[in-house]
């Protein structure tokens, strides 16, 4: 704390010293006036003077403070009498000016009193008792008022301020720190309270100083002193500064105000078992020496191995009851203290030589080798390993491949003591390498000796280059020259005999290619047994039969009849294995079964093998076949396709080693042709390649080998005739039956089929509203959603299952019905299209009209018109059923109206309608496309014609519109619909009256009112809306009978689709009385009790008939519809009313007020704006209001930028710059555009005529004569006289005083004072020098 106090005192002392230094610097600045060398003409500057003036050495001659003015010749009073001496240029340097009333050199000549106007600067001449006298204006003195009184002579400005003399006045320029007219008021810099945090403000000259309390500092005491600056906290603690204090956050283990106290962690005696506790910084440690324990707190007993009881560098392992020593080889004993003979157990492997190692002290001299442990002394043994091996017991093979001996991409294979390089086999052209390290270029394949794209493999053996060929499938031989592919063309075989003595193997392998799903690949056998390899449904199938044992059957479930190559192997061992070696085979392609042969038995005992088929009777050579067990002979069709690489045991079967005459329809190679390549199947039939032929699977209803033929359709109802077809069934079918057929029709009703007999109908299917329906006697009717009567061909199927019948369209299930199980019985009849009984047919939908084709009962075809080659299962009875599927000619007579052209379709027609007509028969005229309505109206299509609708604008005046029925309205008028918007609370909308019937729709007290009395009712119905309608919003209204079919009904009012509607209590009739000769008034009545509507009203619709505001207009189409209300009033209706408030979008800009006029809007624009939306700024300058100036347009105003010399709002007034002029000495002020100028009297000059004019000289000759003023000299140049002006003057006559201040020579805000041929700068207090160019602070 003492250190902090000392620190604060030091800061306070330094602050006071700094203030003193700053104050002295300001004082020094005030005393440096003489540093600028301002005293001239050998004058001497005295710093001690109060006004810092420069007393001159010759005060008689140099009168200025700066000793810079010329000597005054009038000091000696050279003029006699009352004459006044005036300084003037020339040899004399002065002129004598006489008092008023006298003249002459000695002023001894009397003049006429005040006659010549001798008084200057506006002085007034007065006659005195002795002589005239001048009464001078303020600020001037002298006999002639010629002297400008220097108000600064009395030094009115205080505190070092600069005084500037003016006309009849002066101005003081204060130094910083003072203010007031005479700079006598000191500025209180403390008035703004600049010092913060309770500091004391000291006001000084031009500045202030703050005395800061603890603990603050800074110019304004805004900075708090950081008590942590001296780092008072110890031992790594964190110091936190506070106001006038600090706090220490101690590190763990330390306490105290400054964290100076170290906590004793050993006070709790944490060390156990006599361990010594050593205190540390926020920690402690336990020295467990001599305690027998170890650990952080000496809590763990020392392990036995810590005493190192094991000898000879053995490894010690701690145990629960002691320790165990793990000895090095050659040592034994509980502590590995005994040296043993290590070679006695023959430890070295792989032929390694064992060398015993022993200590010299134990065994004396002997063979020694370095131990793997690198111990200085060791006992045991060492193994001397043969080349290529290493390890303690020579058990590790040295990797000879680690040095990468193989070159050119060869792969190194390590072996004991050796390595082998596997050189890359590159099938691409280029050099191939071989040899021990793959570094020798192999030349065996240079000539490409392998045929049939065989791969040549070169090699180098005993220095000789050679090769071998890897043959592709189908070839063998050293050069791949032998073909191993055989082509089987059907109904053939290949007989192979084998010699069991020479045949050492019984396994079979071959490749095959075929499209047959079922075929014989191989048969081997005799009476004792057989083996058959065949294709069944595309799967490879193996069956083995031996004597009376059970047949072994193996099957690989993978389709192989796809025309691709497939490999199959059969191996015999303890188990028979069938394997399909096919890359495309997925799943299990290998199957096994126990072998049926005994241990000595084998299929090799079968001497005869047949490939591709079996002969009939004898072989082609005439040799009788061996007797075969007939039950084992397969009946599989002969193979058609190709066999390849047939391996039977060790024998490879080729065309060359086949015994002549032992084959039939077998050839070398593989001849295959894609029989489907020419696309022989018509009508999208699917073609199957059968190797030597093809087969077509036809889409219904096509048939034949090439799907070219088609089942003949039956036409029902040709030209609206009635008929049917009947199929009599002569057999009984099972419980699962499918009945299907193609159906085409446009008629939405008709009987499709009935199954039954004369006494009972099992099943019925018919068309109802174009949809299929199905029914059985014991089920409910099924009516599907599928529409069949669209003129397209549809395949319909019935799947009859036990207890259920399903109905399909293609594969789409349309539904089912539950029915007891029944069967198609022999004697049942299938009726198609109708029944013999017309009445029963009508009950079941009527006779069918359309086409039915390709009826099938399961897979049996029921043909209407079978030909001689067809295999029709049942003959048909046909009544008015014709062949084919032609359509009726429905264009005769022409069904198209309005000139439409008919085009015949199948059982239908299409009308090409003229423009502006529509409908299937062109019956609908699109009237609105003809543009029948006048401008401003919307065309609306109505039945039989059109209406022109619009929203009308009503202004509330007498503008009623009268309608009347045309006498052709026959419909019942049960409702009224219309829309409107208004802002009036009472108005009439619709009125009609015919005693006693009455209709009125109006607005009363802001609500819509509907009144009606009609029919035989004695009551007048009245409905009032539940909401106000005078809000200017569009309202849509519907007035309707709740029961439009009744003679009298309650009425309801629905507005803006709100529910529930307002409903009347009483009932009344309809509006049918309006169909008579009744005037219907819309918008108000001329003599009505309520004013007419003011607002918008849509076209009113009464019972669907419009009250159009547009009568039939000349030049437009007349309305063709029969039922009309005619406009009988002759007044024109104003249309174009908007449903939305025209002001809703805020169209008026710039604050304009919007008024909704229903059909548009009107903007009342504020001042300065115009246009429909107040979007145009009115240019107030268009009227040229500025007389002497330029006009600038503004919002609702303008501004005139006046030309120089003019002022006023419109620049209409000239500026009189002479109102406040400073012209002296009686000069005349002349105002002009840029200011004013002073026209001086003859004896004065200068800008304000304040200087006595210098002597003038007359200059001229006989041609020119003028005067040079201001001391100018007359001279002649090039024969012409001219004035040579004195310094400080210019102009032709030297009449212009040059303003040396015009160039703003004074810097840093200095004030320029124009003098004769020079200027003087009055500088700011901080600057000095002739041009205020020097900063006083830089001079200290």
Automatic annotation (TrEMBL):
* PROSITE patterns assigned: ASX_HYDROXYL, EGF_1, EGF_2, EGF_3, EGF_CA, LAM_G_DOMAIN
Q: Where is the signal peptide?
A: 1-27
The cysteines covalently paired via disulfide bonds are: 79-96, 98-107, 136-145, 174-183, 212-221, 250-259, 327-336, 385-394, 471-480, 698-707, 913-922, 1165-1174, 1181-1191, 1202-1211, 1240-1249, 1285-1294, 1323-1332
Q: Which residues form the Laminin G domain?
A: 483-670, 714-885, 950-1137
**One Pfam family named in its UniProt record:** hEGF
Q: Which domain of life is it from?
A: Eukaryota
Q: Which Gene3D superfamilies match?
A: 2.60.120.200, Laminin
Record's keyword terms, sorted: Disulfide bond, EGF-like domain, Glycoprotein, Repeat, Signal
Specify the EGF-like domain's residue ranges.
Answer: 30-68, 70-108, 110-146, 148-184, 186-222, 224-260, 262-299, 301-337, 339-395, 397-439, 441-481, 672-708, 887-923, 924-960, 1139-1175, 1177-1212, 1214-1250, 1255-1295, 1297-1333
This chain belongs to which protein, by name?
A: Protein crumbs homolog 1 isoform X5
Q: What is the lineage of its organism?
A: Eukaryota, Metazoa, Chordata, Craniata, Vertebrata
Name of the gene this protein is made from? CRB1
């Amino acid at each position: 704390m003492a250190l902090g106090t000392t620190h604060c005192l030091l800061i306070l002392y330094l602050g006071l010293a700094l203030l003193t230094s700053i104050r002295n610097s300001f004082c020094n600045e005030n005393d440096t006036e003489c540093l600028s060398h301002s005293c001239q003409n050998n004058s001497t500057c005295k710093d001690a003077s109060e006004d810092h003036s420069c007393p001159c050495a010759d005060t008689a001659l140099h009168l200025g403070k700066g000793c810079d003015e010329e000597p005054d010749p009038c000091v000696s009073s050279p003029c006699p009498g009352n004459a006044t001496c005036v300084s003037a240029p020339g040899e004399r340097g002065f002129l004598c000016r006489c008092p008023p009333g006298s003249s002459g050199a000695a002023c001894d000549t009397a003049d006429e009193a005040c006659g010549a106007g001798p008084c200057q600067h506006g002085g007034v001449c007065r006659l005195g008792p002795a002589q005239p006298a001048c009464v001078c204006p303020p600020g001037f003195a002298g006999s002639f008022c010629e002297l400008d009184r220097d108000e600064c002579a009395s030094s009115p400005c205080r505190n070092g301020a600069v005084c500037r003399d003016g006309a009849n006045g002066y101005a003081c320029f204060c130094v910083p720190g003072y203010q007031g007219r005479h700079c006598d008021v000191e500025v209180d810099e403390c008035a703004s309270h600049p010092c913060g945090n309770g500091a004391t403000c000291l006001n000084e000259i031009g500045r202030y100083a703050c005395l800061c309390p603890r603990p603050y500092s800074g110019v304004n005491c805004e900075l708090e002193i950081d008590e942590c600056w001296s780092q008072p906290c110890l031992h790594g603690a964190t110091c936190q500064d506070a106001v006038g204090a600090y706090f220490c956050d101690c590190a763990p283990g330390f306490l105290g105000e400054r964290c100076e106290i170290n906590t004793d962690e050993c006070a709790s005696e944490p060390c156990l078992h006599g361990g010594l506790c050593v205190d540390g910084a926020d920690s402690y440690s336990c020295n467990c020496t001599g305690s027998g324990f170890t650990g952080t707190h000496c809590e763990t007993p020392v392990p036995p191995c810590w005493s190192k009881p094991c000898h000879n560098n053995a490894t010690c392992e701690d145990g629960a009851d002691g320790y165990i020593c793990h000895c090095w080889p050659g040592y034994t004993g509980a502590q590995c203290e005994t040296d043993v003979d290590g070679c006695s157990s023959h430890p070295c492997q792989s032929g390694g030589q064992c060398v015993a190692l022993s200590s010299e002290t134990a065994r004396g001299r002997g063979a020694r080798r370095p131990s793997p442990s690198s111990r200085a002394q060791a006992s045991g043994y060492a193994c001397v390993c043969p080349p290529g091996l290493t390890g303690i017991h020579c058990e590790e093979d040295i990797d000879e491949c680690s040095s990468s001996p193989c070159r050119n991409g060869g792969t190194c294979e390590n072996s004991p003591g050796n390595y082998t390089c596997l050189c890359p086999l590159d099938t691409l052209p280029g050099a191939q390498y071989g040899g021990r390290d793959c570094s020798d270029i192999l030349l065996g394949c240079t000539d490409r000796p392998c045929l049939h794209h065989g791969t040549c493999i070169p090699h180098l053996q005993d220095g000789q280059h050679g090769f071998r060929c890897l043959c592709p499938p189908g070839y063998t031989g050293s050069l791949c020259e032998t073909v191993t592919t055989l082509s089987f063309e059907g109904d053939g075989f290949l007989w192979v005999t084998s010699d069991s003595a020479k045949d050492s193997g019984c396994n079979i392998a071959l490749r095959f290619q075929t499209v047959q799903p079922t075929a014989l690949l191989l048969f081997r056998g005799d009476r004792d047994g057989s083996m058959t390899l065949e294709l069944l449904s595309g799967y490879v199938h193996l069956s083995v039969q031996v004597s009376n044992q059970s047949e072994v059957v193996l099957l690989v479930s993978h389709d192989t009849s796809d025309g691709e190559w497939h490999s199959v192997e059969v191996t015999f061992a303890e188990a028979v294995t069938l394997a399909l070696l096919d890359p495309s085979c997925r799943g299990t392609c290998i199957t096994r079964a126990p072998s049926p042969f005994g241990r000595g038995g084998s299929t090799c005992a079968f001497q005869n093998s047949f490939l591709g088929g079996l002969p009939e009777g004898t072989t082609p050579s005439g040799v009788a076949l061996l007797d075969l067990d007939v039950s084992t002979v397969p009946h599989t069709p002969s193979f058609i396709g190709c066999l390849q690489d047939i391996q039977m045991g060790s024998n490879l079967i080729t065309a060359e080693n086949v015994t002549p005459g032992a084959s039939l329809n077998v050839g070398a190679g593989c001849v295959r042709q894609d029989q489907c390549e020419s696309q022989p199947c018509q009508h999208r039939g699917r073609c199957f390649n059968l190797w030597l032929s093809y087969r077509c699977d036809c889409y219904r209803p096509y048939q034949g080998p090439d799907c070219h033929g088609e089942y003949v359709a039956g036409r029902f109802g040709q030209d609206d005739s009635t008929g049917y077809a009947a199929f009599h069934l002569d057999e009984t079918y099972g419980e699962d039956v499918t009945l299907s057929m193609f159906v085409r029709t446009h008629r939405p009703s008709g009987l499709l089929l009935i199954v039954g007999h004369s006494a009972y109908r099992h099943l019925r299917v018919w068309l109802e509203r174009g949809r299929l329906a199905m029914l059985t006697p014991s089920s409910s009717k099924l009516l599907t959603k599928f529409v069949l009567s669209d003129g397209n061909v549809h395949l319909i199927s019935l799947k009859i299952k036990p207890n259920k019948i399903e109905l399909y369209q293609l594969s789409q299930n349309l539904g089912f019905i539950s029915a007891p199980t029944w069967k198609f019985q022999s004697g049942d009849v299938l009726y198609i299209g109708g029944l013999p009984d017309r009445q029963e047919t009508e009950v079941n939908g009527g006779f069918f009209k359309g086409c039915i084709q390709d009826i099938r009962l399961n897979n049996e075809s029921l043909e209407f018109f079978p030909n001689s080659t067809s295999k029709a299962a049942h003959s048909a009875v046909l009544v008015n059923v014709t062949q084919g599927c032609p359509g009726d000619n429905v264009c005769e007579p022409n069904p198209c109206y309005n000139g439409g052209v008919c085009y015949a379709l199948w059982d239908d027609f299409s009308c090409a309608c003229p423009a502006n007509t529509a409908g299937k028969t062109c019956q609908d005229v699109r009237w609105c496309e003809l543009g029948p309505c006048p401008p401003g109206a919307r065309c609306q299509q109505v039945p039989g014609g059109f209406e022109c609708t619009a929203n009308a604008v009503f202004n509330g005046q007498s503008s009623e519109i009268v309608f009347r029925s045309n006498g052709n309205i026959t419909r019942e008028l049960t409702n009224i619909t219309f829309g409107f918007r208004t802002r009036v609370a009472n108005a009439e909308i619709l009125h009609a009256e015919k005693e006693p019937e009455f209709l009125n729709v109006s607005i009363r007290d802001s609500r819509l009112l509907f009144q009606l009395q009609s029919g035989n009712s004695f009551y007048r119905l009245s409905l009032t809306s539940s909401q106000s309608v005078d809000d200017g919003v569009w309202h849509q209204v519907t007035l309707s009978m709740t029961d439009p079919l009744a003679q009298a009904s309650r009425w309801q009012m629905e507005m803006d689709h709100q529910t529930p509607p307002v409903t009347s209590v009483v009932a009344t009739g309809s509006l049918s009385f309006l169909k008579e000769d009744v005037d219907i008034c819309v918008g108000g009545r001329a003599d009505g009790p309520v004013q007419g509507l003011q607002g918008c009203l849509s076209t009113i619709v009464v019972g669907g008939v419009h009250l159009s505001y547009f009568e039939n207009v000349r030049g437009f189409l007349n309305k063709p519809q029969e039922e009309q209300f005619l406009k009988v009033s002759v007044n024109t209706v104003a249309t174009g009313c908007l449903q939305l408030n025209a002001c809703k979008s805020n169209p008026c800009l710039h604050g304009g007020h919007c008024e909704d006029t229903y059909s548009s809007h009107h903007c009342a624009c504020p001042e300065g704006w115009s246009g429909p939306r107040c979007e145009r700024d009115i240019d107030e300058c268009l009227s040229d209001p500025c007389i002497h100036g330029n006009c600038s347009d503004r919002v609702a105003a303008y501004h005139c930028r006046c030309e120089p010399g003019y002022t006023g709002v419109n620049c209409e007034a000239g500026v009189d710059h002479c109102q406040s002029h400073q012209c002296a000495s009686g000069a005349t002020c002349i105002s002009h555009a840029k200011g004013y100028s002073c026209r001086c009297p003859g004896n004065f000059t200068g800008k304000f005529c304040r200087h006595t004019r210098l002597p003038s000289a007359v200059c001229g000759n006989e041609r020119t004569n003028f005067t040079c003023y201001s001391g100018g000299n007359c001279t002649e140049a090039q024969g012409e006289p001219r004035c040579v002006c004195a310094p400080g003057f210019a102009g032709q006559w030297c009449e212009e005083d040059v303003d040396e201040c015009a160039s703003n020579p004074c810097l840093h805000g200095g004030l320029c004072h124009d003098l004769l041929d020079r200027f003087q700068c009055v500088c700011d207090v901080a600057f000095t020098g002739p041009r205020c160019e020097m900063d006083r602070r830089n001079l200290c």
